[in-house]
Amino acid sequence: MKHFLVVAIPPYGHLIPLLELARRLAPFHRVTVAVSQGEVPEITRRGLVSQTDSFALFGIEDGYALLDHEKDSFDVVLKKVHALAVPGADALFRAMPIQQAITDTRLHEAPRQGTVTVLDPVDVVIADLFLAAALPVLRERGVPFHLFNAASCNLIYALLHVSEDTPTTEGKRSTFREPFDATGPLKPMPAIQKALWLARRKVVALSEGLIANSAFELEPRVIQALRQHPDMAGRSLHCVGPLFSWGLRESSAEVAKIRAWLDRQPSQSVIYVSFGTMFAPTTEDLQEIVEALKGTGRPFIWSLRSTEHNRLPEHIRGELVEPPDWSDVKGLILEWVPQNLVLQHPSISVFVSHCGWNSTMESVASGVPVIAWPMGVDQRMNALDLVEKGMAVLLEGTSVTTRITVPQDKLREIIDQVAGAGLPEGTANSFREAAETWKEKFRVATSLNGSSHEALLGLVRLYQ
């Protein structure tokens, strides 16, 4: 039995799948999850870990304790990750005891409440790809490490095609509008992104391989191509997704209240809306969305950051935002929603989503049709994949670089379309049928002898 150190970054789209990976590795090896100390109390509050988990938490004193990244934009979060999380991980990698040098015991200060120290020597490291700049020291110390990719395999495949010859553009943000096609050159990208991707590609060459939060059934063509890429020669690829808990682990009073509200709604009637934690629609879009939701006459639940609540019309805030009495409320706007619980509930009809990778996989695994509202990074690419699978409709022009306001009438019409409203009696909803088909494929992938289950066992066996 080896000791795995799993090192995450604070954004929940990266942290949650790594926590689930640790949970799945724990029956086979000893596992410690290292994350910014400032996240440890919130991880517990949100029910992301429980007393039944057999892995340990280690808080990295990297400065994130003083910051609230949920109030920041995507670009600001990335800057903080590189300014704080990367140096923090580097310090940990240099100080932690390892099997090859057990006398190296320079550890952090005594742990604070909610953390445990990495007392035992570390055998293997699994680290988020965003920590690539801190990882070469592991190679120097002789510690094997695997890179964890929290996004699609399509995105990592594109990364492995970045070279010194890749053209650049002005600007700081790149939006991946189409799935990557290796038969042609990469499209121009911002110079800062090119530099980051080149550095990450070089670290792949130092690693034992990649662990992906994906499943072969979801991206068969690109996963096959990724395995055959020259950079992956002699390296393993373990597609172990989807990495989230299939059970309803949450047990707080807040979660119980949400579950009770969902239980009161008719089957396949509720519209669920969430744009993640790092992107937000414009003020105009927020107003159009809420009017569209009310105009459908359907119950809805909207997960919206508290920092965005003041941009809603005053009468909406008083009526729908965190109402004190939920008994007769048809719509809810909440600061936080346990997304996996909500999507798996039988009352959910449609998911209005930004199509971040975690949300994309959760919608597939839950069999819920999607109205895709991508805003940046790889979200449009993920949305197009759902459209190709027949379980989504894509709203055009919603990117942060275009900012076309979606009229409430159009959004309401698309909600009705994806929900199957107005279909002749006996006619099946094609979006729901497609979503259910993909749900079953994901269930098989994660079941005993499924592709994701076998990929996890392959990783486990490397160190037995």
Task: Please describe what this structure looks like.
The chain folds into 2 domains: 3-246 and 446-461, 3-Layer(aba) Sandwich (Rossmann fold); 253-443, Glycogen Phosphorylase B (Rossmann fold, 3-Layer(aba) Sandwich). Helix content is 38%, strand content 14%. It has 16 helices and 15 strands. The strands form 3 sheets. It has a 7-stranded parallel β-sheet, with helices on both faces. A 6-stranded parallel β-sheet has the order 12-11-10-13-14-15, sandwiched between helices. A two-stranded parallel ribbon has the order 6-7. Helix 7 links the parallel strand 8 and strand 9. Helix 5 runs parallel beside helix 7 and helix 9 (283-296) crosses helix 14. The longest helix is centred in the N-terminal third of the chain and has 22 residues, at 74-95. The chain is globular and about 65 Å long. 45% of the residues are buried.
Class derived from helix and strand content: alpha/beta
What proportion of the residues form beta strands (DSSP E)? 5-15%
Low-confidence stretches: 102-117
How would the global form be characterised? globular
* Main sheet specs: 7 strands, parallel
CATH homologous superfamily name of the largest domain? Glycogen Phosphorylase B
> Remind me, CATH topology of the largest domain?
Rossmann fold
Q: Termini, distance in Å?
A: 6 Å
Enumerate how many helices there are, as a single number.
Answer: 16
Percent helix, as a range, is: 25-40%
Rg, nearest Å: 22 Å
The strands making up the biggest β-sheet line up spatially as 3-2-1-4-5-8-9
Arithmetic mean of pLDDT: 87
Highest-level CATH class of the largest domain: Alpha Beta
